[in-house]
Each structure stands twice: as C-alpha cells, then as structure tokens.
Amino acid sequence: MTTIKEHPNEKINPSFNELLTMYCNDRLEWNPTKSEKIFLHSCYNINTIGKEYVSRLDFRTFSQESFRNYACRLSFCLKKVVNSRPPQYLLVGISIGNVTIKDTQLGKIKPDFENELLRLKTQPPFIHDIKLKTQTDGLYTNLLNTNHIPNKSNKGISISNLSLNSKVESNVTVYPTGTLLVHLACTYHPIQYSNHGWLEVASLASKIELILVLMGKNEFTCRPVPDWYVTYYHFNKDGVIIDSPIHHYSIARLSEHSQIYIKKLQNGNTVLRYEEKLTPKNKTISDLQNESIAEENYSVSFEKASKIYREKFRH
C-alpha cells in the first residue's frame, strides 16, 4: 500500500494511512487504485485541515460525472451529509466539530447583506479595515522554528506592520490550530467593492503568503486565496460594518457578487442587477481552449503557498 505523509497537527482523528487501512479491513474485497487514494487524501485534507465538508466545487478540474463516479464507488467511506446543490460529503471515521458548510451558490448571499448595501450613500461603495481568515498547515511550526514567540495566553503568533505597498499595511496572527487571521489596514486608501477591488484584495493576500514563506523559511499549505473568508470590513464612511458570522463569504463569492450594482429606476425604485458582460457571440477553438486552461488552473485543494500567486491575481 502506498504510504502518504500524515498531517502533523492531526490529533483527534486517525491519520490518513490509518483511515485507509480501516476502510480496507472493513471492505475486504476493496483494493483502492492510485487515483482513488489521491482523491480520498484530498477529501481527508479538506475534512481535517480545512474543517469543511467536501463537494464537487473542491475538484474544479473534475467534470460533474467524474466526481459523481468517485462518490458512488466510494460511498461506503464517503457519506453525503448535506443535501445541497452540489451535495457535501464527510469521510466515515472523521470528526470535524464545528464544520464550515460551504455556501455553494451565488444566490445564497443573504438578503440582509444586500440590505446593508442599500443603506450606503456612496455608490459604488468602498471597503476598508478588511479581515480575512483561512486554514493553514505547517505555518505555525515554521514560525516557531524561526524564533517567533507565541502569545502566552492564546498561543497565537502575531506579526505586525507587514508593508504590502505604499497604501496598505497588514497584521497577521497564526494559531496552533493552523488558523490564519489577516487584517488589511487601508483606512486612508479604501478599496472599491467591485470585481477589480476583490482582485486587489486577493493579490494582497497572495503577497502575505509569500512573505510568510520567507519569514518561516519553509513552505506551508493553505486554501487557495479565492477560498479565504472575509470576516470583517467597513463600508465607506456611513458607519456600516460587516462582522456577523452569517456574512462570512469567500473572496471569490464577493468578487462575483460585487458585479451586482444598484440602479435607480425612473419611478424611484431600487433594484439589484448584474452588470452586463460583453462577449463575442462566436468563440474560436483557441478561445475555448484558453478558457478551459484557465479553469484548470483554478486549483482544487491545498497548495504550496508559493504556487498560489496565480496569473489572474498578478494585475
């Protein structure tokens, strides 16, 4: 049986190799293929490191049929736990406590969030004092090994005044659980709530990852930047603050949602509608191939931090 490196911070759950052995013992006729092991190991990382259920959205290079085939063949060890669209899964034998249920559809952004947008006096809105959250593996250990001293009370390692550019500074805190909290301080240079603005946030987050690799003198793994959660930010100077847990959306989700803008109709009603996107009606084979490559480059699970600074965030 192929040996796969165990997750060093895992305490309450069996290692991946122990879990795989348990599945083999419980189902004697099953001899997992290499691709099944890789698939299950990705599911294991998402469940244990990311503390999330698994869905097809975690495997963006898979077709819907391909993911369904894996889920069907491995249904004895990968159980559907949330009957959403797409469904969400948990490996048998894994406990993840306060799990994050993926917000799998753009339409699931809460109406209360859009009501907050309607309160704003300035359109398009701007955001500042942005706080991000993601899950990492190996970063805390790297920083300990490079003489970064944790806080005595909460054990978190804090790093202040990371200069990202002439307008934005950042403070970060990493906890033993692998949780990484990032604060982007940009009060005097707010970022527009728009697709371009969220690309700027993603670019800043990617720079932070690279800085942390250099500070820790080693690689670490984490969720792709578009999947980082935005947990807190101020809108404009209207005093509107978003900090409720029910409005913790990913950067990718907010980037999509920001393409909605507010228009006043002649009768005074206000509606939310999508910005129009102008695209040629007839696409060449080359265009379609480039789109396919772009989709495949949107990584499926945990990656080395130095590889996450993708082409789409280098603008």
Give structural notes.
The protein has 8 helices and 14 strands. It has 315 residues and is α+β, with helices and mostly antiparallel strands. It folds into 2 domains: 16-91; 106-313, no CATH class. The strands form 3 sheets. Strands 3, 4, 5, 6, 7, 8, 9, 10, 11 and 14 form a 10-stranded antiparallel β-sheet that branches. Strands 1-2 form a two-stranded antiparallel ribbon. α6 runs antiparallel to α7. The longest helix is centred in the middle third of the chain and has 22 residues, at 195-216. The relative contact order is 0.13.
- C-alpha Rg (nearest Å): 21 Å
**Shape verdict:** globular
User: What is the SS-derived class?
Assistant: alpha+beta
| Percent of sequence in beta strands | 15-25%
- Estimate the helix proportion, in percent: 25-40%
User: What is the H/E string?
Assistant: HHHEEHEHEEEEHEEEEHEEHE
Major β-sheet annotation: 10 strands, antiparallel
CA(first)-CA(last) distance: 44 Å
Overall tally of domains: 2
Unreliable stretches, pLDDT < 50, 5 or more residues? 1-9, 261-289, 291-306, 308-313
Number of β-strand runs: 14
Number of helices: 8
Mean pLDDT over the residues: 75
Short account of what is shown:
It contains 8 helices and 14 strands. The chain has helices spanning 16-26, 34-48, 64-73, 111-119, 139-145, 195-216, 251-257, 285-296, and strands at residues 78-82, 88-91, 126-137, 157-163, 169-174, 179-185, 191-192, 221-222, 229-235, 240-242, 249-250, 260-264, 270-274, 303-304. The strands form 3 sheets. Strands 3, 4, 5, 6, 7, 8, 9, 10, 11 and 14 form a 10-stranded antiparallel beta sheet that branches. It has a two-stranded antiparallel ribbon with strand order 1-2. Strands 12-13 form a two-stranded antiparallel sheet.
